[in-house]
Amino acid sequence: MKHAPPLGLSRRRVAQLLSETKHDRSAASRIDVLSRRFVGRSYQPNPLIGSAGTAEVFTASLDGFDCVTYIETILALARASNVDDFTEWLRKIRYEGGRIQWDRRNHYMTLWILNNVRAGIIRAVSTPAVPILRMERVLNVVPGLDPQPARVKCVPKRAVPRLERYLQTGDLIFFVSTRKHLDVFHAGIIVRDGKKALMRHASRSNGFVVEQELSEFLKANRMAGVIVMRPQATPRRAGLSH
What we know:
Blueprint: H1 11-21, H2 27-37, E1 42-43, E2 49-51, E3 54-57, E4 64-65, H3 67-79, H4 83-94, H5 109-118, E5 122-124, E6 133-139, E7 148-156, H6 160-163, E8 172-176, E9 184-193, E10 196-203, E11 208-213, H7 214-220, E12 225-231
Parallel strand pairs: 1-4
Antiparallel strand pairs: 2-3, 5-12, 6-7, 7-12, 8-9, 8-12, 9-10, 10-11
Helix pairs in contact: 2-3, 3-4
């Protein structure tokens, strides 16, 4: 099935970004270079189009992001070898089975993680000797979606300093909410700077994509814990069914 071009796509800008990393074989390095290009880009609340009563519109704008569309865009760019490849990866990352429907969008991040693990795009990070917190929740904060049971497995906030030594550039970090009907309230991309772990993320409070020390974000925000996933190294072809 042939898909229409995503709304807001600038083929020229995507091609320019891909040209900067075309000779870089390291997924982590590509994510570092690409995510840095968007530091300072504006935060855009609710950037996607679609709801329970409105048809979903596949979008791929580079002009502004929320925390999820920022990591989706960087991950898709890092896996792509050309512009069409980028849009195919973005579709597969954002929607269950790559099907552009509102009810197939990965609204909750536990589902986003599960579907992208199943697709071979990300994997869990092995963290021996770091404690794990397990919770069961019923997610119901998205209007129009039926309540969804979810199992959440995370590193508790108090143990994150012990987790930091396992973090690598390019890792995706998800912050688990303390609210009983929500799984994750924010997400970002880890970048190592020597011994320090930095995070690039689309920040609502700052109004744009920022880079800050992970420890600063932890101090400033309540959370139950964190989930860390690592992008898989794959050939830079989408290989999707149409």
